[in-house]
Design a protein that fits this description.
The chain is α+β, with helices and mostly antiparallel strands and about 450 residues long. The protein has helices at about 5-10, 20-30, 35-50, 50-65, 90-100, 120-125, 135-145, 160-170, 175-190, 210-225, 250-260, 265-280, 290-300, 305-315, 350-365, 405-415; strands spanning about 80-85, 105-110, 150, 195-200, 230-240, 245, 335-340, 345-350, 375-380, 385-390, 395-400, 415-420, 430-435, 435-440. The chain has a 5-stranded mixed β-sheet with strand order 1-4-5-13-14, with helices on both faces. A 4-stranded antiparallel β-sheet has the order 6-9-11-7. The longest helix has 17 residues, at about 210-225. The chain binds uracil (URA) and calcium ion. The site of uracil has 8 residues, from helix 9.
Length: about 450
Amino acid sequence: MRAVDIITKKRHGEALTKEEINFFIEGFVNGSIPDYQASALLMAICCNGMDSWEIVDLTLAMANSGKTVDLSPIKGVKVDKHSTGGVGDTTTLITAPLAAACGVPVAKMAGRGLGHTGGTIDKLESIPGFRTDLSMEEFIQSVETVGLAVAGQSKDLVPADKMLYELRDVTGTVDSIPLIASSIMSKKIASGSDAIVLDVKTGSGAFMQSVNDSFLLADAMVKIGVRAGRKVMAVITDMDQPLGTAVGNALEVREAIEVLKNKQHGPLRDLSIYLAAHMLVTAEACGSLEEALNKVKDALETGEALKKLGDMIENQGGDRAVLDDYSLLPSAEHIIPVKAEREGYISSIDTYKVGLSSQLIGAGRSKKEDNIDAAVGLVMYKRLGDQVQKGDILAEFHVNDLNKFDEASKIFMEAIQIRSARSKLRPLVLGLVTKHGIQKFGAVSDMEG
Ligand code: URA
Ligand code: CA
């Protein structure tokens, strides 16, 4: 077999065999196939796509390119939840303790921020002392004793994804359904959970901007999970605006704690409850979504889930006192309001740009080597559809390096459109994909009234 023939075949739009895919992935990881050939294949996949069998074969070849995690020592159905990436999307810090408080073990390997999106590991590391680099023994022991653990993905897991992702990032081949689906699912399969709930984001702050593509991505990922023998489902959710109010690492940790204290309502709380309930159903801990929703709400309202988060923080070396004393979290030197320049209604939010503005003041990385500043970010005071007067505060920026503020606030202001007329809002959850198929929810909801 020759790499060049495989590239040519895909360039002609033909389907690759399992043997060809395995040959290519193995060769790329062991160094016998160079970057330029892998880049050419990635571009051919981007342009011509893959059928669902090829996507499964690619995912399994990637999942088996390194070590895999065996969670079988832990009793029960282990559940994981994964977001395809968003802005102000702090659901993991809420759903993991919620599900664990309901008795379902959560063994989550999480990532760092990617591009304009935030990552759970960066957020957790803003808690003083918190360790995300657990050994496999520590990870398993944590889930056994506390009921949950959130750790960074160990380096020997799915080397093929790490290598392919670096190429994709610089060859314009990120936003491809087969490549995103195989990238995410290879890591989910290798990290060993029995049940997986996927939160597929759609809209201006997501990798998939169109609803249709988001359903296709969700469907591809669910098919992979089913063929790999996992219990899996996906929820398609809105990312046309940040989910929570906070964007930035320590700010998001604080907001997650406020939700778990039952002090903050709104879409972040609503979606976290909904996802946690699907975690219980997917793990077969509840027979119906209704039963699961009640259980999860109970865990939130009684403070059980907050206690679980505290247990996890303590178990992973962090200072549990942060739950009651936010001054233990890093905080920025300057808090600068950004104000509306006209009156009207918030009609659109370019969520990519909101994420970018937070990244620019140091909450995310522009290059792989960049250090992030856990303290910085922004808090939004307005959401889509809100009425504003000229001079109303749209957001507060938490800034350490004032030199970076001008550009960031300029991009933020470009992201927020204010119009005279109210526009329609779509629902937070747009549909579900399960092994039984696709279910799309009611189209557009009128926000008036
Ligand atoms: N997240 C991933 O892990 N991989 C992708 O390709 C996109 C988002
Ligand atoms: Ca993420």
